[in-house]
Each structure stands twice: as structure tokens, then as C-alpha cells.
């Protein structure tokens, strides 16, 4: 286990505002920072980051915690990975044993391991004499030997159980191969067989170079061109970008990223010097992918195929990118070309020329719409404005938005006020797969009363107040997790250790504890007189407990009466009266 003292050092040295702003934009409001929650979709920002308390909390979905918890939730890291990431950022060395003696997610580790084993198998196949056609296919596509090795490209032989036999010989169970999406079961014979057969194979890496799954392409047209790994425990489609593990440092350095669609569209430009490039894995661009890219650069050049499908995919992506406050340009490929074929024909120089001649998103979309609708006709102008405004409504910068509105009116020779009038009618909607709104998959809220939550807020603000709760008795609080939080505060306070909210959270593995502590911390700001609030809340807790006790006694009295137990009734009434009398003292 990593000593809590080291975790405290890390949390003291890193700034949660800096950590979170590396993923999502934050706006300063008073002493805190605010933004739309990255964990649920909302219209009104309710995600608060406290620089003073070094925690975050969303008042919409209840998510909350410290910098470690944010990385675990946002990046899907385990505890050790999150601590290691922050330790590197803080230049704090972690003891070697602390990394190895705490297990990671066992299933995830096994899936990464078996995917790596499969990748080795596919890579080695390329060297086999019977697989020379596959090796030749890569060379024919312009991919050189070093690039094949660098991207760990491989080949799945024309065998029903080639991978199964290889992995079984190494002691890998079929169930694990199935969970990795590498094999399938015949519904009739119940026999297992390899998912990928007679195809060149592209391993799909996460940002930390772990293999999540595979894409595979047929060598001819006798089979469907591409098949990919299904979603698994470690692989979620639409969340990752192909090649980002290789290109992230180049993207940071050049401050822009080139987005293409497919594997070859990325590999050929990368091989020819365009290394700040990622691919969407052949799917529509998603919010998750954009949020990942925002960590490295806000400037985008989209280079999709020049056909109609590529044009439509580009238009669909525009609204999402603009909504996420990205600066977007579109590179137009020569007719009949994709990035792969263009590089093969004209090399990296030809591709760079296309990038340099890219168009601003506004110019691109207006050009596409002008080709579809007659802009010299009133109805054509109306349709163009109708299609342009949902995109422009997403622009956050008022000056930029105003400039584009003026430009539309000039391009179409229409009154600018008319365009602005139409903009007011536009309901800004999300480009995501689900409608924007304050719908939240709210984490299950616990039965913690307002008084109890306020007491936690008071104690977090001034730990000396924990003694008053000790006098009351922690057993008087109904929620076991809340009792555990109070007990931990008491323990830390008595030992003289740090009890800041950020440090306190690190003692709990339950995300609900993070939510409770972060929510209570934000309540601190609403307390004007903590001493008076403490007395009031303690009185409420005592009163609530008394109500429960009296309710139980009333039930017992009714039961004794129904059993004609006169002595029992008299004893219970006396107990009831005594409790009422004590409560009035």
C-alpha cells in the first residue's frame, strides 16, 4: 500500500484546478471554478472546483472527490495509476513496493496481457512463409518494414483455431479469449473459432500503450472489408482514438491535431512525417474523443475522404467540435483521394500542402450548402441560413459569433438583423447522440438528513468540533458510511494528522464517501455562524433520534394493550413520559 503520508504530500503539491483544467475548461467564479459536468450532460454549469479545499463537486449528479478521484473517474484509471500520474506531475518518487503490492483490476490486467499475446502472434505470422502475401500487401500499400514493426501490424492466418491453439498452449483459457473479443462460438456445434481470419491486423492502443482490441482488413473483396473487436471490459467504441499513443507529444508540440478516419489514413502520413495525427477508427467523432483531444490541443484540421460520405461525416462532426470550443479547419482532398492514397501519390509534401490550404469551418460549410441550395434564390438563402445557424449558435465567443453572422449576411446579401432574428429561434441542441438537458444518471443518494450533512460540513471547516459529535455518540447517526467518515476524522484529529477534505477523501475507496465529503465541503460556504449551526444541528439529530425511539415505544404500547398486558403498558408509558420530560430539559 502507498503510505497515506506520501498521498498527502502528492495532494498538497498538485493543484486540482490545474489537473482538471487539463481536461475541461474551467471558468473562475468568485473563489471557485465552474464548468459543465464532464460526467453527465447539463445545460447550466453545476460542476464546482474549489482551489481552497482542493476538491470538486457536481451539484447535478453528485460526483465529487479530490484530484485522485477525478482521474480515476474521468480517465477510468485505477487508484495506483491515478496516484502515479499525480506523483509524476508533482515530481514525488513512489516507493517501488507501493506500486507492486496493491493489485490493479485483475480482469483488465488479464485482458491486456492476452491482447498483447495475440498481437505477438499476429506479428510473428507476417514472417511465416505462408503469410508472405500479407507482408506483401503492406509493402504494396506503401508501408515500410520499420513502420510495420512500430505500429505492431500483423496477420491473422486463414485458420479457424490458429490463435486458440497458440494461446491454449500458453495456458490461456477460452473464456478469457472470449472476454477479450478474440474468439467466437458456433451456435450449433458450440465449437470455438478465431474472430479474425485471413486478415491484416491493426492493434488498437489506449493512450498508455496498452492494447484494447484490434481492427482487421481483408486482403481482397471476398470478405467484408473491415471487422473490429467488439466492446469488451476494457474497450468501449467511440472512446478512443487510433494512434494517439504515438502522436500525443507531437500534437502538444505543434499545437494542432489532424483527424482522419481509418488505419491506413493515419499510418501513411505518420510514416511520411505528419505525426500529429489521429484516426476515429471509422466511426463518427464522439464527445469522449473530443474531450481527450482537448487535453493536447484545441486546433483541429479534419481530413476526411473527398466522397459524399466523407463530406457528411465532416458536417456531423462540426457542431460537436464547435460546441466543445475547438478551432476547426477542413482540408479538402483532391477528388478520388483519401489521405492514404494522396500520400502514396504525392508523399508527405503533398499532404502538408493540403493541410496548409485547409478552410475555416465557416467557409467550408457555407461552400457545401451553397452548392446544394441556390443562394441566388430567396428559398435557397433561407435554407442556407437555416442550416448554418445551429452550428453558429454553438460558438461561445460573442465577438466571433457576431463576425460570422455578419459574414453570412454579406455572402447571401441578406439583412443582418434578419439573420440575428432567425438565430433567436434556434434552439441550441447537442450534437451528441442524446439530447442536451439536465437529465442525470444520479448516483444513489443516501438517507442522510440535512442536519447530519451540515454537521459534517461544520466539522470539515473546523475539526475541533468533532469532540461535540463524540459526546453525542456516532451511533446516533443512521448512515453507516457517514459514521465511518466521522470516526476517521476523529481518529486523524486525535493522531494530529491532516484532516483536510482532499486528504480525508483519500482514506476511502467508496465513491459515495467522496460525494458526501465533497458535497459537505461546499456547504461550508453557506454557514455564517458555525457555533449556532452546530447547536441547531445537534438538537435536530437528537430530536430525530428521539422521534424514532418514541415511535418504537408507541408500537410496543399498542402491542401490550392488545395482549392485555397492563403492567407492560404502564411501564412503557412511564418510559415514554420520562423521555419527553428529558427532551424538554
Please identify, by name, the CATH architecture of the largest domain.
Orthogonal Bundle
The low-confidence runs, each spanning 5 or more residues with pLDDT under 50, are 98-103, 428-446
Distance between the termini: 50 Å
Radius of gyration based on Cα positions: 31 Å
CATH topology of the largest domain: DNAb Helicase, Chain A
What is the number of strand segments?
Answer: 16
- Report helical residue fraction: 40-55%
Number of domains: 4
Mean pLDDT: 86
Structure description:
With 585 residues, this protein is α+β, with helices and mostly antiparallel strands. The chain folds into four domains: 4-98, Zinc finger, CHC2-typedomain (DNA Primase, Chain A), CATH 3.90.580; 106-228, DNA primase, catalytic core, N-terminal domain (DNA primase DNAg catalytic core, N-terminal domain), CATH 3.90.980.10; 244-364, Dna Topoisomerase Vi A Subunit, Chain: A, domain 2 (3-Layer(aba) Sandwich); 450-579, DNAb Helicase, Chain A, CATH 1.10.860.10. It is built from 26 helices and 16 strands. Helix 12 crosses helix 15 and helix 16 (361-372) packs antiparallel against helix 17. The protein is globular, with a radius of gyration of 31 Å.
Amino acid at each position: 500500500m502507498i503510505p497515506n503520508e506520501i498521498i498527502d504530500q502528492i495532494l498538497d503539491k498538485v493543484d486540482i484546478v490545474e489537473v482538471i483544467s487539463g481536461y475541461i475548461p474551467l471558468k473562475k467564479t468568485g473563489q471557485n471554478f465552474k464548468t459543465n459536468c464532464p460526467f453527465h450532460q447539463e445545460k447550466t454549469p453545476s460542476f464546482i472546483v474549489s482551489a481552497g479545499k482542493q476538491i470538486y463537486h457536481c451539484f447535478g449528479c453528485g460526483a465529487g472527490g479530490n484530484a485522485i478521484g477525478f482521474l480515476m473517474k474521468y480517465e477510468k484509471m485505477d487508484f495506483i495509476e491515478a496516484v502515479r500520474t499525480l506523483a509524476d506531475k508533482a515530481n514525488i518518487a513512489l516507493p517501488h513496493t507501493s506500486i507492486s503490492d496493491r493489485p490493479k483490476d485483475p480482469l483488465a490486467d488479464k485482458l491486456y496481457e492476452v491482447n498483447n499475446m495475440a498481437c505477438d502472434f499476429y506479428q510473428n505470422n507476417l514472417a511465416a512463409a505462408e503469410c508472405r502475401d500479407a507482408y506483401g500487401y503492406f509493402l504494396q500499400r506503401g508501408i515500410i518494414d520499420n513502420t510495420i514493426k512500430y505500429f505492431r501490424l500483423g496477420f491473422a492466418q486463414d485458420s479457424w483455431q490458429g490463435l486458440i491453439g497458440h494461446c491454449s498452449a500458453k495456458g490461456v483459457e477460452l473464456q478469457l479469449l472470449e472476454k477479450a473479443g478474440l474468439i467466437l462460438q458456433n451456435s450449433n456445434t458450440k465449437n470455438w473459432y478465431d474472430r479474425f481470419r485471413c486478415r491484416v491486423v491493426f492493434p488498437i492502443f489506449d493512450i498508455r500503450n496498452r492494447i484494447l482490441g484490434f481492427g482487421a482488413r481483408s486482403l481482397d473483396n471476398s470478405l467484408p472489408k473491415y471487422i473490429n473487436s467488439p466492446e469488451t471490459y476494457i474497450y468501449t467504441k467511440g472512446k478512443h482514438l487510433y494512434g494517439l499513443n504515438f502522436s500525443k507529444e507531437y500534437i502538444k508540440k505543434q499545437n494542432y491535431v489532424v483527424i482522419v478516419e481509418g488505419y491506413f489514413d493515419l499510418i501513411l502520413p505518420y510514416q511520411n512525417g505528419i505525426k500529429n495525427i489521429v484516426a476515429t477508427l471509422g466511426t463518427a467523432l464522439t464527445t469522449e474523443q473530443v474531450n481527450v483531444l482537448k487535453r493536447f490541443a484545441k486546433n483541429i484540421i479534419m481530413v476526411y475522404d473527398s466522397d459524399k460520405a466523407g463530406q457528411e461525416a465532416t458536417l456531423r462532426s462540426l457542431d460537436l467540435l464547435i460546441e466543445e470550443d475547438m478551432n476547426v479547419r477542413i482540408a479538402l482532398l483532391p477528388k478520388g483521394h483519401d489521405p492514404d492514397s494522396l500520400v502514396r501519390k504525392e508523399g508527405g509534401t503533398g499532404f502538408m500542402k493540403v493541410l496548409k490550404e485547409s478552410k475555416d469551418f465557416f467557409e467550408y460549410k457555407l461552400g457545401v450548402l451553397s452548392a446544394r441550395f441556390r443562394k441566388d434564390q430567396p428559398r435557397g438563402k433561407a435554407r442556407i441560413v437555416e442550416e448554418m445557424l445551429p452550428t453558429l449558435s454553438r460558438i461561445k465567443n460573442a465577438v466571433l459569433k457576431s463576425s460570422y453572422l455578419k459574414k453570412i449576411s454579406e455572402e447571401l446579401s441578406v439583412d443582418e438583423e434578419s439573420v440575428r432574428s432567425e438565430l433567436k429561434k434556434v434552439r441550441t441542441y447537442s450534437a451528441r447522440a442524446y439530447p442536451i438537458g439536465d437529465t442525470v444518471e444520479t448516483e444513489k443518494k443516501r438517507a442522510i438528513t440535512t442536519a447530519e450533512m451540515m454537521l459534517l460540513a461544520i466539522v470539515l471547516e473546523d475539526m475541533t468540533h468533532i469532540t461535540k459529535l463524540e459526546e453525542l455518540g456516532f451511533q446516533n447517526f443512521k448512515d453507516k458510511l457517514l459514521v465511518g467518515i466521522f470516526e476517521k476524522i476523529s481518529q486523524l484529529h486525535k493522531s494530529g494528522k491532516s484532516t483536510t477534505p482532499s486528504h480525508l477523501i483519500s482514506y476511502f475507496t467508496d465513491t459515495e464517501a467522496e460525494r458526501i465529503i465533497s458535497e459537505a465541503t461546499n456547504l461550508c460556504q453557506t454557514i455564517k455562524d458555525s457555533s449556532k449551526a452546530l447547536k441547531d444541528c445537534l438538537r435536530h439529530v437528537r430530536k430525530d433520534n428521539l422521534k424514532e425511539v418514541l415511535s418504537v415505544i408507541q408500537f410496543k404500547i399498542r402491542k401490550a394493550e392488545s395482549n392485555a398486558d397492563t403492567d407492560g403498558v404502564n411501564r412503557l408509558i412511564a418510559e415514554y413520559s420520562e423521555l419527553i420530560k428529558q427532551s424538554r430539559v
